[in-house]
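User: Can you fold this complex?
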Amino acid sequence: MKISKTLRSLALALLAGVIALTGSAFAQSSVEDFTPITDEYLANPSDSDWPMYRRTYDLWGYSPLDQINKENVDQLQLVWARAMEPGSNEGTPLVYNGVMYIANPNDVIQAIDAVTGDLIWEYRRQLPSPDQMNMLGEHTRSIALYDDKVYHVSFDNYVIALDARTGALVWESDRGDNQYVTNSTGPIVAAGKVIAGSTCQFAPFGCYVTAHDAESGEELWRNYFIPREGEEGDETWNGLPFESRWMTGAWGSLAYDPELNMVYYGSTGVGPASETVRGSGDGSLYGTNTRFGVDVDTGEIVWRHQVHPRDNWDQECTFDMMLVDTVVSPTADDLWAVNPNVELGEERKVTVGIPCKTGVTWAFDRENGEFLWAKSTVEINMYDDIDETGTPIINEDVILREVGESVFVCPTFTGGKDWAPAAYSPLTNAFYVPLNDACADMLPFTDEPTPDDVYAVAETYHMAPGKDTVGRMDAINVETGETLWSHQRRSPNYSPVMTTGGGLVFGGGADRNFRAFDQETGEVIWQTRLASAVSGHSVSYEVDGKQYVAVLAGSALAGADFAALVPEIDFVTGANAVYVFALPDDVQ
Amino acid sequence: MKQLLRLPAVILILSLTILSLAQNPDIPREWLEDRLQLEGDRITFCLNPDALTASFDRALAQELAGVLLLEPRIHEVETWRPTPPLDYRLPLNQNQTFMLLADHCNAFINFSISPHTPEWMILTRPYYRSGFSFISTHPEVTSLQDLEPGERVGTRSQTAADISFATFIQSLDDGNRWSRAPYPDNELLLERLLDGTIRAAMIWDPALYAATDGDPESQGIRVISAGAYQPPATEFGLALRNQDAFLRTMLDEAIQYLIQDGTIESLLAQYGIRGTPAGTGR
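Assistant: Here's the predicted assembly.
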């Protein structure tokens, strides 16, 4: 039977009416008794809450709650779950005063009752079709809370502020370059400013970090990374025209030290990947793959350190480096480099972590950027050495020098380390980091790449030499650099990590398991299998005396590149959801 | 002759969409409508309206559909990111291209032929090819050999010719090499040549002749010799999903027909595209 156009139109109109009525049935409510969030609160939040990306400015990813601990974690039960929007689901559920603020893929932000999972309000940004934007913008790893607002950087590169009570749009500020630039890891609010990096892949120019006034949305400062002709560091680009210095942004985690009033971030690499295709020769590429300490009020760069010069492999040094005040005694046997001026046993304000895909751990004094120590984790062949100043000496044998000639490189485009953040525990003075051991044959294209393949390199993946596992989690002591334990398994690990006061490390993996490890031993104490890969962050919070653990699962770039290496792993993506666990009432 | 192609073309269209999507890129399934594009005897081409050759592409699509006795439909691709000026480059990544082919069209016209296509994509045979020329505005530069070692030669980055030229430079002695100055688009490349930033450049012929109304010398630009080095031409065909192999075969035959009967050569001349029908040796 053929339905006439008129009938079809009528049916569509009726359907639209039904959808509209259904939508109106979920009338938006508002968050009751919302208490504005202050600078002081964010510097020292309640143990019950998880009010920013990694809970605290220092990026620890640590909840002090200990109701769930090593003795009882095996009794965790699912208390509620809620479906989420489709798309890459790498978000973080923020929790403040019993309300969960959660960013779904594609700019859908919700406030949810953190005890029941019921929707309170929803903001849904109108966006162009996804085939007209930088698709990396579908990731929203976090949003930010401050005063009475929720802050977000949209798929189309606007900084926006929502009313935390109702979800209503308060202001938005266009950062420009909407067709090329987006943001994936989200902003932080520091000293009343919304600080945000940029996801700049596919852009025929370099990108920036911005600061906006949290109240008005006015842009206060903007820091670019790539020098123009004649500026400091221009000579390291070997005369490559400024118009061809592309893609350097900062899409990873931002840290903030309220005492030093400094914000910390790292820049990415550059495209195309091969220095020959790029045309920059053996230049070190000033501004790329660099860690920065920046005055949050002015944007002035206080210190900078390039941790990965002359990138040929898209190693992107933009990932999380935690802020820890610790005794420094870099005495582990397997350190790659130590600054000889470091006095063993002295107390330092340190920034430490694995900022690049290389998997190299770096530690700096965060007051002045002084290099302290470095060590490798996963297999790496890009460096011959790291010298006493913290400068890598590049292995000339793995430079992508000849177009059409394949080079065996460790690690890969996808790490090593990638976006999934590590977590630090003050109980052990160690951080716990998700990693992948893999290598690749990298082949700079001999012919024109397919559209917008700006890296212009083909990759064939391999196990790292001597390995039959891909995913791992390492525990590294911040004082000594010693590796306390390394949990290694076949399934890739692109799952963020959380530590808790209960002596636990939570993490997931591409195999759909959500696990709790013993911080001290690395033993897996508990695990449960979800509907899809653990794609997003886990957090912990407390409401009415009950501790909860929440985690996002669903679609992600969850190691599928390595599927051929571990064919027995059942890669499942999709079915985006937030899962919330707690102990039975009689166990608490 | 043309009628011979009709029946198989209709059959193929009806059978295409039920095949496996096993090699598709990792795109959220919810984003794909995966519509059946062929309704009755219609074929839909995706076309980039910002490409330098868009008018030629539109006319060619009509001719291809005519050979297959199908009703042509053009889906003009909208992108936020513009095609570089004076260029053919499609400002889409693989996932975006896949989504367009899954939801809006059967074939993407004006696709540069590359061996590095993703697994889910297949290409037709090329229908035309266009070359690259070395140019200069300096009377004393009549050949690349007149440039100083280390001097920069402008290119539009990441064309096949650009990469080939990089390889050629690498083959020269260390002390006798030029450098490349890769620019993101041909308009900027010409601008830098004319403002004296560079003394020589390698440029895609259709861009050179479109920018100068077919007469480069009227603007002081001369084609210079590259000696023994010949940059490779770029060839253009249509892109499809790999499940559409039968349609690809039919389009190949249609392209062959249009080359042999002189249609493509006529269209190139009509729309002022500096190129030759592919596979003719001209």
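Chain B touches chain A through 47 residues (CB under 8 Å). The two ends of chain B are 25 Å apart (CA to CA).
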